[in-house]
Write a structure and sequence with these properties.
Helix content is 35%, strand content 21%. It has 447 residues and is α/β, with parallel strands linked by helices. The structure holds S-adenosyl-L-homocysteine (SAH), iron/sulfur cluster and FE3-S4 cluster (F3S).
């Protein structure tokens, strides 16, 4: 615990610059903020251009093969900076560092360091000390939560706060338990202090993060209690969390969601498949019927609840009937949004030892079909907002429309509207929705 403060005394080499590129999920983005906090304490300045950096880090993802291939390709690009400046340090951190450690150095011998998600605490120090040999630290640490380290965040409206790390579920397709280790929670006192500070700094929304975020338990405080206490933080307007696991969604959490006004009516609830046969082989810990009952309960909590999900197609053993069951589930639930993936075998996982029964062409066909269906459903769900008024938490200028302002509705839908005098980011405005497509609501400021 005292190491964080020791850093300040160690701080040296003023003027060194660090560049970090992030892949993967929100937890990795939050880890990048944590790493930037560490580097700043050691006197580094974060830069947005790798050409300016003394240290280049790729914070990587291992969830699917495609994610790993992208990083390998990108490292090839970044190598040119190192070829020009041999003193530049180029490293890989994050889940892929943990997943393929030795193979990485074989394939990419010019990499200076490979550091896994539980070894960030001393990283900047270690780089300042390291000699010519590549530095490798991929030990997993059952207790590391980085609770005492302060992340470096850009000012904004929404802050991502990691409240638990790791995963105990071992779904048979998933690499996360292997690369991020076992579940552990940040003490509630630390979380709440951080949220208070964020609200004082002007953040209006927090998103609690964890691979099974609703399994949060620090030994005394559970997830439902944490939500209730967060709801009391003055200045904070909105609370979200991602991703909850269907099997961990307790009655207490549903009740906290129903009674806490700041908890938004929006839940990302990954289902993966609509077939019990596949769910069982995935070891997800719920049946289709149990999932549907949970959806019903969530919609009873708030009738305007927005739901999103993750789907995998082409899991080993997935038959045409199984796939059709997934399509049926999508039609029945009508998710607002879904992230859909082809199954990708990950070494070390249980499913990677099973024969792949769905050909690459067939996986692609199923993926296209499920995407087309979901696109139509998302469009339909958004049409239901046309003619209604929504409360938009303003984020800033819209990306695609000059002179328009963008923000999010409580359901986490992007809403854009013309505003000759743009409202300040962090304010909440009422917008009358005039049009919608499958991704965005378009409206105008209501009087
Ligand atoms: N903890 C979350 C999931 C995190 S990973 C949960 O349990 O719900 C994000 C998504 O990536 C998963 O929901 C899954 O749909 C997808 N995914 C994970 N492993 C995969 C694999 N081997 N192949 C394809 N998709 C995968
Ligand atoms: Fe992976 Fe399952 Fe854990 Fe989610 S719950 S991170 S899918 S093992
Ligand atoms: Fe990828 Fe690691 Fe997140 S594997 S999805 S970056 S936890």
């Amino acid at each position: 615990m005292s190491e964080g403060s020791q850093f300040r005394e160690h701080s040296l080499e003023v003027g060194r610059r660090v560049y970090i590129e992030t892949y993967g999920c929100q937890m990795n983005l939050a880890d990048t903020e944590l790493l930037l906090g560490q580097f700043r304490r050691c006197g580094y300045e974060p830069v947005r251009d790798p050409a300016m950096a003394d240290v280049i880090l790729l914070n990587t993802c291992a969830i699917r093969e495609h994610a790993e291939e992208r990083v390998v390709g990108r490292l090839g690009d970044l190598y040119r900076y190192k070829a020009r400046r041999p003193d530049l340090q180029l490293g890989i951190v994050g889940c892929m560092a943990q997943h393929v450690r030795d193979r990485l150095l074989e394939r990419l011998p010019f990499v200076d360091f490979v550091v896994g998600p539980d070894a960030y605490r001393r990283l900047p120090e270690v780089l300042q000390e390291s000699g010519r040999d590549p530095y490798i630290d991929v030990r997993l640490d059952r207790s590391e939560t980085y609770a005492d380290l302060e992340p470096h965040r850009e000012a904004g409206v929404r802050a991502w706060v990691t409240i638990m790390r790791g995963c105990n579920k071992f779904c048979t397709f998933c690499v996360v338990p292997f690369v991020r280790g076992r579940e552990r929670s940040v003490p509630a006192g630390v979380v709440l202090r951080q949220v208070q500070q964020l609200a004082e700094q002007g953040f209006r929304e927090v998103v609690y993060l964890g691979q099974t975020v609703n399994a949060y338990h620090d030994g005394e405080v559970d997830f439902a209690t944490l939500l209730r206490r967060t709801n009391e933080v003055p200045g904070l307007l909105r609370i979200r969390f991602t991703s909850p696991h269907p099997a961990d969604m307790s009655e207490a959490t549903l009740e906290a969601m129903a009674t806490c006004a700041k908890v938004c009516p929006q839940v990302h609830l990954p289902v993966q498949s609509g077939s019990d046969h596949v769910l069982h082989r995935m070891a997800r810990g719920y049946t289709v019927e149990q999932y549907l009952r949970l959806v019903e309960k969530l919609r009873n909590v708030r009738s305007d609840m927005a739901l999103s999900t993750d789907i995998i197609v082409g899991f080993p053993g997935e038959t045409e009937q199984d796939f059709e069951a997934t399509l049926r589930l999508l039609r029945e639930v009508k998710f607002d949004q879904a992230f859909m993936f082809q199954y990708s075998a990950r070494s070390g996982t249980k499913a990677a030892r099973w024969p792949e029964t769905v050909s690459p062409e067939e996986k692609l066909r199923r993926l296209r079909e499920v995407i087309a269906l979901q696109e139509a459903i998302a469009h339909e769900r958004n049409q239901a907002w046309v003619g209604k008024r929504v409360e938009v938490l303003v984020e800033g200028p819209a990306r695609k429309k000059a002179g328009w302002t963008a923000g999010k509705t409580p359901q986490f839908k992007t809403c854009v509207f013309p505003a000759p005098q743009p409202p300040v980011p962090g304010s909440v405005v009422t917008v009358a929705v005039r049009e919608a497509n499958s991704h965005t609501l378009f409206g105008e400021l209501a009087a």
